[in-house]
Amino acid sequence: MASHPDPSPLPSPVTPAGRDGLDAILARPHKAVLAFDFDGTLAPIVPDPEQARAHPDAVPALAALAPKVASVAVVTGRPAGVAVRYGGFAGVPGLDHLVVLGHYGAERWDAVTGTVRAPAAPPGVAAARAELPGFLDGIGAWQGSWIEEKGRAVAVHTRRAQDPQAAFEALREPLALLAQRHGLIVEPGRMVLELRPPGMDKGVALGEYVREVGAESVMYCGDDLGDLPAFAAVEKLRAEGLPGLLVCSGSTEVTELADRADLVVAGPEGVATLLTTLADRLAPL
Question: What tens digit of pLDDT does each residue of 84-122 get?
């Protein structure tokens, strides 16, 4: 009889809580929710967000893993339909029950129906979007930055500016004042400032979904400041007795997540490798 090679070893989390989370996922995968940010986690960061696509190994890894766990979810600030399109998630065998929680959970796409459920955009978003071009013209440090329309949010990117970090810092306070005037908040990210309605974040979305599924363990992978609320949600669940694993898709631009993570991997390629390795370790349901 031909022997099968042992699966690749899983990386070991650096914290006891992270090791407990991974052990719980391995012991009862049918009760585990595995959740992921999109940009910077499943998809490499690119200068033009409209050109973002899932890493070539990400979707096959998700498809191998999804049938072996309770649920796989993508939690993103992007509109749900955009994340599905850029990720190439629709119609993939194995991802029959994938859920995409878009706009920080305000929108939801379910693979089983192929439809997006979304409320109407708050009026403050449209008002801020209309005001932004003239508003930015009055701020000298913003040249080279550009506006992204996101439906329920609007974002200003500085990655193309001559000095991206200087432009980012120069815009933070003025955009916060603009957002406040229209009943919005500013969500900072990797060379991007997003104006969006308050009340929803990735932590709220993840916590509600974990409870909906009845999960007994959770893993969350992220890379940016917008993922901190999801990290906090996992930490809260752990304090309540539900094991969890926090994974940072490594970036030198954002260190806050790496400092709080149980496990740091090398960007989207590292995330895909982790998922493939985990799928190899789990038996089919």
Answer: 999 999 999 999 999 999 989 989 999 999 999 988 777
Query: In the numeric block, which tokens belong to residue 240?
Result: 């309540």
What percent of the chain shows pLDDT beyond 90?
71
Q: Which of 6, 20, 23, 37 is catalytic?
A: 37
- pLDDT (tens digit per residue) in 232-247: 999 999 999 999 999 9
The answer to whether the beta carbons of residues 245 and 18 sit under 8 Å apart is: yes
Which of 21, 95, 58 has the alpha carbon at shortest distance from 263?
Answer: 21
Whole-number Å distance between alpha carbons of 267 and 265: 6
The first and second tokens of residue 194, run together, are 């997003």
Look at the pTM and tell me if it is higher than 0.90.
no
Using CA atoms, how far residue 245 sits from 105, 151, 220, 265, in Å, is 20, 32, 6, 13
Number of residues assigned to the chain: 285
Instruction: Give CA–CA dist 25/109, Å, rounded.
Output: 25
3-state secondary structure of 245: strand
- Residue 181 structure tokens: 């005037």
Three-state DSSP at 69 gives: coil
Active site annotation includes 37: yes
CA distance 177 to 218: 36
Read off the amino acid at residue 263. Answer: L
